Amino acid sequence: MYLYRTILKKSAQIVWKFKHLWFFGFFAAFLGGFLEFELIFNKTGPDFGHRFLNNVSSLKSTGILSKSFLFNFGKLFKNDPISMVILLTIILIILVLLGFLLWLSVVSQGGLVNNSSNIIDNKGEANIQKGVESGVKNFWKILGINLVVKFCIYFILLILSLLIFFISYNSTLLSSMLLINLLLFIVFIPLTLVLAFIAKYAVCYAVIKGDSFISAIKKAFNLFIKNWLVSVEMAFILFFISFIVGFAILIGLTLVFIPILLLFNLAVYFSWVMLSFWIFISGIILLAVLMALAGSALSAFRITAWTGFFIRLNSSKGGMSKLARLAAKLKK
Questions:
Q1: Left, alpha or beta for 13 (phi > 0: left; psi -120 to 50: alpha)?
Q2: Has residue 331 been placed in a domain?
Q3: pLDDT in tens, 96-118
């Protein structure tokens, strides 16, 4: 536990001292902080393939995939060009904003890894400007790593769940659903974990070591193979800490919300319309700001911890899992 305690303690100190990391943490969170767990707990199940087929069928029923769609679109543009131009402008603005959010998320992930590694190794400057520069420099590599890994995870899940979906429809065994779910978890969870760890390590190789896209993925895979057990332990410890901290944040927000709710009800009771309105708006803004700050700090802490863990695994000290140490003691 000493290995993890040292890394986690130092990461918490760094995030608390260098609060500009919270800025990067806020946007980096949009790329997914716990890729290895978000799919396992939210997306798994034999109904995933069924939902996918239903979504494809629904999309097809809208006619957007038909040949007549372009004809109808052109006809609408001809009949009411002003409305269509406004609609296309709105769609374009939304796409630009989403694209900017994606860009900012990728840059923030790179900036957070770069700055936290500089702070841990006591080399180079660590500020928002340096972080953004590093994120922009490694943008395509980081984006490629995230897209490839997420595509692989969803593709594996889709193939497995579609296979299980068709098997379940042709099976007459009462226990088939239990066996199907067991098969899904046995195959999918290890693959998801491997890909998630490869993504984390590959981003660190790309940003910290300056490796190319292919080289970063190859080295990340080799690093995980050599340290798979300690990596899994680190992931579960971080997940547990994040769960506890998240629960504490929820309690804290509830304690903040209670007096606001009491003031709001008091204003409503005495028919103070404007006061109740401003209490409501102020309360929503305050809770949103507090949630954003807490979420940003937690996201920054997770990525900083993984960065410190990566640096430790690549150092001469390396890392040994708690289970391996316990097994060694038992042999003695």
A1: alpha
A2: no
A3: 999 999 999 999 999 999 999 99
